[in-house]
Amino acid sequence: MSSLLQELTEKALAKNVPLSVQLDLTYRCNERCVHCYLDHDDHGEMTTAEIKHLLDEMADAGVFVLSLSGGEIFLRKDLFEILEYARFQRQFCVKLKTNAIMIREREAARLKEIGVESIQISIYSHRPEVHDGITLVPGSLQRSLTAARFLKSQGLRVIFANVLMTENAQDYRGVISLAEELGVESTLDPTVTPMMDGDRSVLSLGADQATLRGVFRDQGLVGDVNEFCAIPAPADEDSLAALPCSAGHTACYVSPYGDVFPCVQFPLPTGNVRKQKFIDIWRHSEKMNEVRAIRLKDLTTCTSCTHVTSCTRCPGLAFMEGNMRGPSSQDCEKSFVRTGVPSANMLVKKRATANLVQIGALPNSPSASAAALA
Amino acid sequence: MSKLYMARNPRAAARSLDGEMMIMSGRDSTLFTLNKTATILWQSADGATPLDEIVEKKICTEFEVEPNEALADAETLARELADHEILQISEAPIIRNAAGEKR
């Protein structure tokens, strides 16, 4: 983060200003990614007028960075009307997240005229059979890459966003090379998010520990491997007073139905912009303020963990596990794979399992036989 | 001396954060904060009011500064902001349609 951006973020934090918002315009999508956490049916998206009204409220509240995402945003017939309003009437810095398969030369030229800051495109592999196997749309990689070329030829900033899973574990280097070849940026996210309804079955698609270990020791990705994988210094009082993340502090998320959450990955409803003003939800929602009050020292289990200050712990994933102050097991695993040191949460779980083993089985029970075989 | 007109570059992103103006350049996404004088120029850049009038009515009344010196400094600043694609400057009024395109 640049020093000026850091300074502005600190100021926004001090003044309780929501500097950035992700607004999902729709959950409808023309791809069916195997790891997606959304319900793609339309349950009553905000209208164009409602979205423009929300943009007015968000601009007045101080929102500067507006990330428009979905679902697939290009399925909204009013997308360009919304974009023009956001840019020319309310001067947002607009970032787009899309699969790009509906972007042709004409759309790329319009995005250039409108002046979006960046376009993030989901690319899961450089190999069509793998990417299309994840999106479940034949030809989707080719179409996304064609769009990326159109956007790049307009001088727009393009970022490939890849999610690391078992299915594409061998391909992240290929995506990076493809991005370099096209002159675009790329990111790699090792997190698979549970479904918004709480279904965690998609987590089984996530990369295994061996893959993560390789990624975390890839100098091209993490820079200095020794530094990246180092065991952190013990936490002091100051570091424990730090915020867990920006969710609810300088950032939040609004769904296509107007529900406001601390983050797209933190499905705690804090209000609805169809019923309340955005700024009132941001400032006065009890739940938003509860999230906002949490510091690292308030976390259960994690406060005593070796990794507390360096962990990528996501409060939203922790919330989806049942406790927004608790550990996020996915992040515990990442900290363990990165450093080789188990997290406090992992040790607690291990002790619990060990205690169960110590109870033992009754003689002649099936599990006693199984234990004997083992 | 010819008149200078300024308009906000529609490709720039802008927001006031507790009175401090944040601007992201439309050219390369560089982030700037504007000082008081630059903020006055940005807020007054309607494409129709000439710079000398803005300086006389909004800068000289705000700061104790000699008018000719203020105008010269403001013109330098306006050109610098134009270089970063934050403002557009012209010797004729700048008129745009609702989509931000010049007419």
Structural commentary:
The complex is a heterodimer of chains A (374) and B (103). By secondary structure, chain A is an alpha/beta fold. Chain A has helices at residues 3-14, 48-61, 79-89, 105-114, 128-135, 140-153, 172-182, 209-216, 219-222, 225-228, 237-240, 278-284, 286-293, 315-320, 329-339, 344-359, 366-373; strands spanning 20-24, 65-69, 93-98, 118-122, 158-163, 185-189, 251-254, 259-261, 271-272. Chain A has a 9-stranded mixed sheet with strand order 6-5-4-3-2-1-7-8-9, covered by helices on one side. In chain A, strand 2 (65-69), helix 3 and strand 3 (93-98) form a beta-alpha-beta unit. The radius of gyration of chain A is 22 Å and the shape is globular. The model of chain A is unreliable at 365-374 (pLDDT under 50). Chain B is α+β, with helices and mostly antiparallel strands. Chain B contains 3 helices and 6 strands. Chain B has helices spanning 36-44, 51-59, 67-83; strands at residues 5-8, 13-17, 20-24, 31-34, 46-50, 87-90. A 3-stranded antiparallel sheet of chain B has the order 5-1-6. In chain B, strand 3 (20-24) and strand 4 (31-34) form a beta hairpin. In chain B, helix 1 (36-44) packs across helix 2 (51-59) and helix 2 packs across helix 3. The relative contact order of chain B is 0.24. The model of chain B has no long low-confidence stretch (mean pLDDT 90). Classes of the chains: A alpha/beta (374), B alpha+beta (103). Chains A and B meet through helix 1 and helix 3 of A and strand 2, strand 3 and strand 4 of B.
